[in-house]
Structures are given as C-alpha cells and as structure tokens.
Amino acid sequence: MRRRHFLxxxxxxxxLAACGESRPAGELYGRAVAQAPPRTPWDAQWSNFAxxxxxxxxxxxxxxxxxxxGDEERMLHDLRRGRSHIGGMSLxxxxxxxxxxTIAMAPYLFDSREEVDFVYDExxxxxxxxxxxxxxxxxxxWVEVGWTHMFADRPLTDPDAAAGLRMRTxxxxxxxxxxxxxxxxxxxxxxxxxxxxxxxxxVQGGLSSVVFxxxxxxxxxxxxxxxxxxxxxxxxxxxxxxxxxxxxxxxxTLDGAWGSAASARMGVRIxxxxxxxxxxxxxxxxxxxxxVRPLRTTSGSEISIHDLTPDQRAAWKARTVNVIDRLxxxxxxxxxxxxxxxxxxxxxFAARAAEGGEA
Length: 359
What we know:
19% strand, D-Maltodextrin-Binding Protein, domain 2, disordered N terminus, alpha/beta, 13 strands, single chain, five-stranded mixed β-sheet, 14 helices
C-alpha cells in the first residue's frame, strides 16, 4: 500500500472517530454553543440546562456557551452543518440564516412584553420552526434578550440628536435601517469588535439591551436612552438531523432541560429591571442593598439614563415608520407572511385585552 494512500485512510479513520464513531453505543454526543456573558441569567440558564441534561447518562454535551467558538453567525453556520448541535441564539443572530425573522425586530412593532409573549407563543412559533427546518434546524423554545435601546456619548431622546452619529449595529437589516432612517451612520460590527471600536472612536454608540450593555459596554458610554424601539427574543435551536437521530428518551430530556419559556424570560426580565434601577440611581448594589460600586465610564464621567416622553416616542416612531415596508420589500421570501402573522397576533392580543381576558 502506498504511504500516501495509507495516510489518507488513517486520516479518514481519525475523522470518523472524532465525529463520534468510537463512542459508546447509544450515546448522543453534541456541542452546545452560545454567547452568554458570565454572571448573567443566560449563563445561569445554561448551567441549569447542563445539570438537567446530565441526569440522562446517554447524553454527553460539551459546552462552549461563552462565545468560545465565535460570533453568532459562525455558531449558526456550525449548527446548520452539524459541527455544533444545540445553541442559544438571539433573533438577530438567527436572522443571518433566516432573514424573514428580521421583520419581528422592526422599530416600534410591539408595545409591551405581554404583547411580545402572546404574539411569539401563539402566532410566530410554527412559522419560525418551518423556516428553521429549511435550514436543518429545529426551534426548541423561545428564551429572552429584551428591549433594544441606544447608548452613546449623548442623550438620544430626540431623533434629531442622532443625526450623523456613528452607531454600531449588528449586521441585521432592521437595526441598520432604523439607524439610517434617523440619519445615523450605521456601522455593522460583530460583538467582539464593539469594545475596540468604542475605545478608538470608530463608533460613538450602539444598540443594545440593558443587561448586555451593563455587562459589556457600560463604562464606554455616558448616556443610555431607553428607546424600547425593538424587541429581541432569543431562541434555543437544535441541529434537526442530530435531534431526529436521538432516541425518544434523549429527545424528552432535551425538550425539558431548559425549562419553560416563561421561566427563561422571567430571569432576564428581573435582572433587566434591577439593572435599570441601578442605572437610574447611578450605583450597583448587592442583594442586601449595599453599594458595590458607583457607575462611571472609564474616564470617570457619570452615566445617565434617559426615558422617552410620549411625544419623544411618537417622534422616533414617525421618523422610522417606513422601515417595516423597506424590510418586507428587500427581504422577500416569507417576510410578508411573517409580518401578517405578527399583525394577526397583535390584533388578537388587543381583542383579548379589550374583553378583559388574559393575553
């Protein structure tokens, strides 16, 4: 046998072994991926998930849930191809593969958390699962990211104040179009590039949830404006072929290990409310109420938080009202259908509220 041919066969055998061919019969091996910053609810939820999965000895997962394997676009690429197997993704991340999901992040589409929950649970789950299946993915359940706001080197309560501002956005079209509609210079950057860009002045601010901003970029911006202009609902997605190849008992473990969507949402929302309170007060406190540290930028400046008045919210909404039509027109695919589902869900939520029912 020629040496080159022998080495080729040896390499193929090693590859098969690495892919799990030499694992115990019946064991389901996989890799879990996410971008869950330490000390956040997402990190705690992954720890709880790991403990629950460990109760089934036929499942073994390796966890790379602190962005060890790259950004969301990279993780989603690996999930679709079976290099990773279960992942926690933001809607922004999922939209890189399923662009129709961008519609759900259009500015000022939702008015309350309760409306978001109702529309996602009752009207969006099935169509998103169908879109996921076309990408060799399965939607396991919704989790939570939260309202998207803006941080910058100035208050952004008036859309005119944002004109010309260099703002970091995700590559997502909803974020870019929102910034462009307000006259900002939208600069798409991956999460790993945000802090260097703020430090060097490449960008002057960005779009973020309260929790992510607090744990990632808080000390690099003097002002945080609660625009609540978009809602990012995260999701747990699974490689469909891997999931379908599992036994009934293994699938049951995976289905239940995360807990309910309501509990996943609640943990993030509680911290979101706590962090917002810290920003209002200008200090971080521990569980006993003691001051842990004052909230300052790296240069020592105070950090201010700003609410929108009803008139200011109306001004932002009017300035960005055409974004949804632009998204539907440019994305195509099933984006119009997704938008129709959202509108139907909003109408049903409003009807239930008018009748005094619990939506």
